[in-house]
Amino acid sequence: MPIRNSAKAIIVQDNRLLAIKKKDKDGYYYILPGGGQEHGENLHETLKRECMEEVNAKVEIGNLLFIREYIGKNHEHFEFDSEVHQTEYMFLCKVKEESRDIGNGIVPDEGQIDVEWLSLSELLSFRLYPQTMRTYIIDYLAGKDLPVYLGDIN
């Protein structure tokens, strides 16, 4: 299976992080909006399309904050993700003012239940994947100097 590129949005507004809500056997969990890059798209085009499809939001894309790899065979979901190798490019984004109806978009992510704003002060209590990103997001917003490339994390 080839390596897949993915663009993800880190959208923070009013001390809350926008996330996609899903559910599995262990309960609710969250992921960042975004998804796979299609042939002929640059990463910004991918992210704009994915944010409209998943969270019904037009976004203004800012700086690239983090690059994360996910090599499925190395993590807790290896039994069904062992063939997955994905590189995710995470950009700081803002929701454009004309996007007032944030919620499930026209092409929600597989298994997507809803869209929620997660309180940053409670972020560590949410099952947000990749889990390591919770601390990176909090530290970035606190002004800490962080690496861009995070390696193979979950």
TrEMBL record:
Classification via Gene3D superfamilies: Nucleoside Triphosphate Pyrophosphohydrolase
InterPro entries: NUDIX_hydrolase-like_dom_sf, NUDIX_hydrolase_dom
Superkingdom of origin organism: Bacteria
Ranges where the Nudix hydrolase domain occurs: 2-141
Record's keyword terms, sorted: Hydrolase
Keyword Cell inner membrane assigned: no
Reported cofactor(s): Mg(2+)
Protein name: NUDIX domain-containing protein
Organism of origin: Ureibacillus aquaedulcis
